[in-house]
Amino acid sequence: MTGEFILRLFIAALLGGLIGLEREYRAKEAGFRTHFLVAMGSALFMLLSQYGFEGILSSGQSVRLDPSRIAAQVVSGIGFIGAGTIIFHKHIVRGLTTAAGLWVTSAIGMATGAGLFALSIMGTILVLLCLEAMHVIMGRVGNRNVFLKVSATSPKDVQDLLNRFKEWDVVIDSFKQEESTEESERRYIVSVDLNMKRRQYENHLYDMLQTDDSIQVLELV
To answer: pLDDT tens across 176-204, in order?
Structure first.
């Protein structure tokens, strides 16, 4: 049985690592090592839950154990790791997909630990298909949230920038303007949350900001 248990751990780590490689390639918050460890740890907890107390059960004592209790705690515990990958930055929530990926990676590891190899392999394939297919589709269509922080020399430059956003039908979710007097030069620091089409973001935003000498980009997320 020990050889089979080691095989289950190996397969769980391999499947989790495949999902982690995709996340690592996309430069997400949790990458290969995190998904590798989550899948292997979940499989190990499942094996412990199912077989770790056989010695007590076979001792003849009147002991009743629920083999699903440890596995159930894994489902709750993985939420702490997932929550650590979710970032709320400048009115934009990031990391939800990575958190969900860790959650399903844990489920894949538990399924592998239970010996459900076909189910865990199919789950991994579906996760990778979802992540890659949606990345291709959403890269061509849909909107994205953008946080932009710029420095301008005058209020007129700020107004011109906002007018260009309106011409592109870019939605301004929030707007904040502050004055800065660094190096004896008055500049206007503008922070805006934008909702724009992905094609606009890729094809126009960078070019516009680079060609406008009156606007200095401080942050773009």
So the answer is: 888 876 666 778 888 888 887 766 665 56
- Return the pLDDT at 195: 80
Amino acid residing at 165:
F
**Both structure tokens of 26:** 């996309």
Phi, psi of 26 (to 5 degrees): -85, 5
Structural contact between residues 43 and 112, judged by C-beta atoms closer than 8 angstroms: yes
